[in-house]
Amino acid sequence: MLTDVITPDLFAAALRMATPLALAAIGGTICERSGIVNIALEGTMLVGAFFGTAVVLVTGSPWLGVLVAVLAGVAVSAIHATASVNLRTDQVVSGTAINLLALGVTGFLMELWYGHPGTTQPIKTLQPVFSFGAMGEGFLGEVWRWINGVFLSHTPIVYAAIIIALATHWAMYHTRWGLRLRALGEHPRAVDTAGVSVARGRWVAVLMSGALAGLAGANLSIEQVGVFQEGFTNGRGFIALAANIFGRWTPIGSYLASLLFGFADALQIKLQPFRDVIDVPPEFFLMVPYVVTVVVLAGVIGRAVGPAAVGEPYKKE
Amino acid sequence: MPDQRAWMEILQKVGTPLISALLAIGVGSIIIWVSGYDPALAFSALFKGALGGPRQIGETILRSTPLILAGLAVGYGFRAGLFNIGAEGQLMMGGLVAAWLGVLMAGLPSIVVIPVLLVMGPLAGAAWAFVPAILKARIGAHEVITTMMFSHIARYIVSWLTAGPIKAPGQIPQTVSLTEPAQLSRIQSLFSPDVVEALPFLGLGRAHTGIFLAIVAAVGVWLVLRYTTLGYENRAVGLSPWAAQTAGISVQWTTVKALCISGALAGLAGAVEVMGLHHRIFDQFSAGVGFTGIAVALLAKNHPIGIIAAALLFGALSAGSGTMQLEAGVSQKIILIIQALVIFFVAAEGIVTWLIRKRQKEAVSGAN
Fold it and tell me: pTM value?
């Protein structure tokens, strides 16, 4: 049984499952580093997935769908930015409203455009970037099978997520933007005193998180599932926030934490066919990602401390 | 001018929620219109479905009942600075325990069964909030994430149990119906049919006595918040944990109590929904009531009595939305959009306060 479970596609699935979480988690990291909590990631992802799917249904172009998903994410996050930066509303409340709005708008448009609730027609999806066959024999052949299966079998956004994690991590610690971003979340007054606009910096961060959540939605609909389904983000936005905390508010940390959650998810899916052997109801498998999230948050790693000024509206003197 | 300031305060307290609700409905009708429907037809259908007659009013009362309790749950948490976004999960657990125990206790008289269910449902809700509460108090794990995760877990527990271990015979994944002694009776059945015929306004359809429980709970929460040490500590921690700590209040213990009481109220909502309406549970019987509770609490600014009014508004929208879909073709999802807009407009009250302050400032500088 073990050899049936521990296969290249288990790890490939972990990478796949980690991707939407990681993109949203990095979005959450950037946003929280600037001092803004974004619990709207869930809804932003959903809206991105919906409009991305709608565009693919009309144009037949998955790439155009991805672009529109990102733009939709940016648009949704602009609402959050207006509310939390300019109007100084409670950020968690604004995020809740956006999540509700996302459910409402996608459900409403679903019925308006497609005449029924639930799931859209299947769409043309993005295909894996590479397609290598089997190579070599014996041990080397096996090694290649693993490398090819785990790392070279993916769709574009899966690779994009890894690049984004590395690039944002580098940028956060090696560029002026990164320094300012971190300062915004720790001590906005200092940033303001230095003559840099707090509002502008936070706006940019919120919009970036929206773009990433939109991309996460595109990955879900245009790469993974191949349809849009009402509410199919299924709490991923919140798990992403947990991944951001577990990853200690760093992009690479967020990615690695997402990989852990992705692996848990991949494992439960992989184990489902063995239900009869282990005799556990399927619902217990489906609970795994949520249980793992709570366990991780419960501080396997001890107490995590976020940016000092996170969640506090900044008021210019 | 103190009277003007007092007037402003009242205006802000009652006015902003009212304006927010009206604005949200206004934007909702614009969306309906842009989508190619007739807003006048839609809203008249909505109105008819919610308040058109005693049976429709009964439907509004029916929908408002769990919303009052869920709103109280979320509101009580907010008063302690806690955001119980996972009330939905606690509600499911309350309903689950009520449905399960109610069937186990079949054959016992109402006077025994109903009190037991009304205690055990809230206990289940409190238990479901307990772990997030402890995690929040001890290590600061954010309750928004943990209660949300517990909500998803509850969903799978309900779908597992209703599909297997406690499934009623037959095709549908649901539990056996509660017997009559375990049910909350319908309001109209409190009167003899002759009386209902003579006084048609008593023919409240499916509305059940749970509404009285909900109102009692609202008054109870109001009294607790206003007149007890428990409520005082709750509010103190909500206003400033640091100040409360300095004053000798245990912030951790208050946090645990607040989230558990919040969970208990949500559990009561689930139990009442099962005992009064469904008489059983099935997958997704909670229908998002816990999430609507967030909108209810925010619209009422967490005031228990205001929560009754806010719940009636959302109950009416929900009751009327079916008729609206049927007669005007507008998707019921518009109600979710309106709820979200209400939250926005209430939360963005900052604009209103800001405008008032600005005008006051201008007035002051003008006087100089």
Answer: 0.91
